[in-house]
Amino acid sequence: MLDLRQLRYFVAIADAGSVSRAALVLHIAQPALSQQLAHLEREIGTKLLRRSVRGVAPTDAGKAVYRHAQTLLKLAAETADVARGAGTGASGRVRIGTPSSIAMILAAPLLSALHARHPGILVEIYESPSTHLAAQLLEERVDLSVLVDRAPSPSLIVEPLVSESIYFVHTRRGDPLAKHDSVSMKQLTAIPMILTTRATTLRHLVDEAYAQAAVAPSVIAEASSIQTLLTVVAQGGIGTVVPYSALSFHPATRALARHLVTPRIVRNASLAWSRTAAMTEPTQHLRDTVLDVTRSLVTSGTWEGATLLARNT
Question: Rounded mean pLDDT of 141-163?
C-alpha cells in the first residue's frame, strides 16, 4: 500500500533535483530519505528517478507518478480544510503560478478580494521564471497560472488578461535620460544595464527590441529575481527594462524614474488552466477573482501602462 509520506518525499526529491538537497529541505537524514525512496520504488515496481553526476531526474514512470502524487498530496492537504469549512461556503487549497513581476501588483489585491468573497479558500502563490510556468501547469504543480508566453500549449485553456508596456528604469538622481518622457533602444545602448535572465519572456522581448533597432545593449549583470534587479538599480549608476507591474510595490520605487520605451515593447499576460485536470470550486472562484481584480487594477489606472485584452468567447 502506497504511503503518502513516501510520495511526499519523492516529490521533494524530484523538485530539488538531488537527494541531498531534498534532505536539507525536509530536515531528514540523507540515508533515511534514500531508504524511503527505495521502499517506494519497490512498492511501485519500477525506478522513478534516473541518477547522474548532476543529481536526479524523473524517469518516464517517475514523471507519471509525480503528477499523480501531486494530486493525491493536494487532496490530502485539503481534507482538513474541507472538514473545517463544512457549511461555511467554498473551502480548500488552490495553487496559482505567476511571474515575479506580475505578483508584485496582483498578489495583495487578489488575496484581499478572494478572502472577502470566500474566506475558506487558502491560496498558494508560486513565483517562477516565466518560461517555467506552462510546464508547472501541465505537470499539475499548480491549478492556475498567469502566463506571458506567446504560444501556450494547446493542452491549456487560455483567458487573455492584459497587455503591458515596458519601461526603462533608473534612479532619479543621475538619470541620464531625465529630460525624456519616452526613450528608444538606441538611447539605451550607452547605459550600463542589469536585465532579467534569459529564462524569462521579458528578456526575449527586450533582446528582440535591441535586435530590431540594430543596436547592442551594455549588459553588465543579469538577475532572476525582480527584487534583486530593482534593488541593484536603486543603488545608482545602472538601469534596467521592466513592466510597471514590477515597480508597483517595490520599496525602492520612489527613488526610481521610469520612461516608456518606444517603439513600445509589449508583454501580453493571460490566465491559463489545464484542459484535462478537473477544475475544483475553489479554483473556479480564484479564476474569477483574478479576472475581476485585473480588470479593476487596469480600469482604475493602478496598473500603469496596461491595457485589458479582449476575452475569449
Answer: 88
